[in-house]
Every structure is written in C-alpha cells, then in structure tokens.
Amino acid sequence: MIGIISFVGFTLLVAIIAYLATRKTDETSSDGYFLGGRSLTAGVIAGSLLLTNLSTEQIVGLNGSAYKDGLSVMAWETLAAIAMVVTAIFLLPRYLKGGLTTIPQFLAKRFDVTTKTITSGLFLTGYVVVLLPVILYSGSVAISGMFNVPELLGVSDKTALVMCIWGIGIIGSIYAVFGGLKAVAVSDSINAIGLIVGGLLIPVFGLMAIGDGNVLAGLDNLMTTNADRFDSTGEPGQEVPFSTIFTGMMLVQLFYWGTNQQIIQRALAAKNLAEGQKGLLLASFLKILGPLILVLPGMIAYHYFEGGLETSDLAYPELVRAVLPKPLVGFFAAVLFGAILSSFNSVLNSSVTLFGIDIYKQHIRPDAEEKTVVKYGKVFGVCLALAAMFIAPMIANAGSLFNYLQEINGIYSIPILTVIVVGYLTKRVPSIAAKIGIFSGSILYIISQFFLKDHFVEKAISAAKESGITDASALRLIEAEAYPHYLHIMAILFVTNAVIMLLIGKFYPRKEPFKLEYTQQVSIEPYRYLYPVGILICVIVIGIYIYFAK
After folding, report:
1. Which residues have C-beta within 8 Å of that of residue 9, sequence separation ≥ 6?
2. CA 15, CA 140: separation in Å to the nearest integer?
3. Is pTM beyond 0.70 here?
4. How many CA atoms lie within 13 A of 409 on its CB side?
5. Are 373 and 356 in contact (CB under 8 A)?
6. Mind giving me the DSSP string for 405-448?
7. Cys-Cys with 99: which of 264, 388, 495, 519 at CB 3.0–4.6 Å?
8. What sign does the CA torsion over 438, 444, 448, 451 have?
9. Ranges of each domain in the chain
10. CATH number given to 27-406+523-548
C-alpha cells in the first residue's frame, strides 16, 4: 500500500507542477503549442532530452545487453555525448537561424515540398508503426509486473496488460495532445531528476548486496571477479563490435540527436541559441553518466545471479526485485512510469507537430489559421494515441522488437541523415537527387538486412553444423561473422547514397545555387564557453574508452 501511495503521490506532483508551469503559455499558436512558445531553458531542455531518450526498452534492454556482453555496450550512451556536441556546434545554429519548427521544413527550402512530405511520412511511419506501440507494451509489462496488477485487481495477465496500456496511453495523451510541448518538457525535466536519483539507487543497493553492505567493496569485488567484462572494446560477436564505433554507430547517434524530430524539437524550442547549446551540453554530460544507470546494473546482475538467469532481459527487473528496499518500490515505479510517459508523449507530440505543420498546413488547408492547425493536430494526435493503444496488446514478441529496434530504425534514419547532410554541405544538388537518395537508401537497407543477411547467416550456420560445430558461443560468433554488422551496412549505404546524390548534382545540377535564408525568431548569440566545454566532453569520452580498453 505504501508503494502505491508513493507512486500516485509522485505522479500527481509532476502533473500539478507541469500544469502550473504551462497555464500561461499561448497554446493556440504554432510556436506556443508545438515549440512551447520558444521559451525553454537549458535545464528543461536537458531533462526533456534525457527522459525522451530513456524508457523501459532502454533501461531494461540495455542492461540486458550489459548482462550478456559487459561494458562494450556503453557505446550507445557515451558516444551520444559526442553527437550532442556536434549538434550544438554545427546543426542547432543553422536550425534556429532558419526559424525551423520541424527538420523536414529545411528540406522543403533546400530541395522541394515533395521531399519534405516524404521525409515527414517516413518519420511518422517509424513513430506510429514501431515506437508508440512498443513503448506502450514494454512499459505496461514493467508496471504490471512491478505492482503485480493481476493479483492486485484479481484479473488475468492479459486484462492487466490492457488496463496498463490504456492508463499509460490516456495520461500520456493528455500531456502531449492537450498540453503541448512545454507540458511535455516540464514534466520530463522533473522526472529526469527522479530517474537519476532512482536509477542510481539500483547500482548502489546492488553493489552493497555483493559487497557485504559496502559499495566500494562491492565494486572492487565486481571488477576483480569479472575483469574481462570491463573491456570497452569488447570481443568479436558481441552486440557492439568496437569497429562499429568508427562507422555506423556515430551516424546513428548523429541522426538521433541531430536530426530526429522527436529529439531535436526540444532544442528548437529554446528561448535562444545559447540556452539550446547549454541544454545539449548538459544533456551530454548526463549521457556520460548514463552507463551507471543503463549498463552497471546489468553487470551487477550477472555477478549477483552468477549468469544463471533464463534470459538477459530479466537482469534489471530481477535485480530491482532482489536489492531495492520495499518502501522505495513505489517511488521507483513512479520514476519508471515517468520515463515511459516521457517517451510516449514525446513521440506523440512530435507526430502531431509533423502532421500539423508538414501535412495539414502544407497540403490539406494551406490557408488555415494557426489556431485551426493546432486544433486538427490535436485531433490527429488523439487518433494516433487510440491506434497505438489498440495495436500495443497485439505485439506478441515484444522482446525481440527491443533487440532489433535500432536495426529496424535504419530503414529511415540513414536515408534521412544522408539527405540532410548533403543538403547542408552542397548548393547545387537537385531535388530529384534527394528523392532518389531517400528511396534507394531505404530499399537497399531492407534488401540487405531482411533478405541477404538471412541467406548468408543460414548458409554459414548450416555449414558449421554439418562440420560438427554445436557449441552455442561458437555458432554465435559464426553468425556474427557471416554478414557485416548492421551498423557497418548503415555506413556503407550512407556513403553510397551520398555518392549517388553528388553524381546527380554533378551531371544534373540546380540552375541556381541554394542559399539558406535566415529567418531566426530568437537570439542566435552562441554560448560563450561552447568550444571549451564541447572539447572537454569529447576528451572525457575518449579517456573512458582508453582507461577501460584491454
């Protein structure tokens, strides 16, 4: 009962603070609703970025990967810091100078409206078909299990799951659809504090559990007993081979933190360039600390359970259940609930923004007033939320989606990143090159990962078994070496698509060179310590890799 009371109390506190902070924001204008009146400060931006990024598939999934592979999976967190520095220095100034509300708006100016619409459609498809249902399903499984909802309410597991899905969906929709971006960002920043505090409690109690009540003794025990798992470079066949850091990993990070509407919308809503840059840099520092929450617990679980869990995805929830004191369960569940809500309502709000600005205003009613655009954006948001709530219970094998989520996202992430990079770095590449780049990138990636890869892997595994190899670890290594890692494929296709676009630009150039018109709506004076802080962050990340390299 104490757990439920603390859960409800913390959740209501966040809602009340978000309401008080946003009640004076003009939600009838596009800037007011979609960008919070362009009024967000560094702390709010950093907190919102952190919570938008984190949800149950990250917290549970990445710790599961650490349980299986060790420290090498920290690349998903630490390298994000460098990507945010690059975004703060090179991309955000251009975005704010152009007065952008959505990333596809730049593509309309650089290429044409059709390119913008295609890109918005890709974003929306990726958000609606993959992200929203997966977030709802995974979050509901976590909340239902943590509070044992079936037993608490006397219902079946399936009914409890559906109830949690609709509960999370409705509350998240209220924030995202009716509160606008500012309500989302304010609630995110509060939950970020709770996530940092609650997230750090798990490794602290975990280390105490394996160190006879002493955190430092537990850490020494963990590092001494599992020294080979504290290797930043990893081993062949692991989820994140070290070589991918220099190819597709950085491209994925740059897409996610620099061009993904779901993420960059927070920085676009900054009150000025300096606040946006400070927000990104603060968030990058937090990402450097991310492995303490997203990697270390998985490694502790491997030691605590002696590698004996049925699946790696059980590592985090089992460790929480084993080491967290009962009175803190409610608070931690509220923090986790906040992370789930954040990811859901952030994706939903970005979807509403893309539809309202890039679809409705552009193609359905070009003469619509801003109040009308916001109105129908909200209607679209409600429809999306309902669709996601109906689809989520149908996800039968959600666990496999977590493992392949990054791989699936490559269908649209790398083509979009390629077009944006070429668009900014060239002046005469025509619009037809952008369209060809998007479609060729998506089609080639699908062919590679869902047809060619299966063929080569099945052939290699069959040959290995015929030669008498049956050891699971050996087969896993053979599978990894049978076909290039999907992050390498992303890098290859990025270069291929860029070359195709540049060749088209050489033989069929634009008649007039593109010139970006600056229509900034906020101050674009940069943060005075941008370069020293950015360099320091990059040095810290490189230093961490060198220190833990074996």
Report:
1. 334
2. 20
3. yes
4. 21
5. yes
6. HHHHHHHHHHHHHHHHHHHHH-SS--HHHHHHHHHHHHHHHHHI
7. 519
8. positive
9. 27-406+523-548
10. 1.20.1730.10
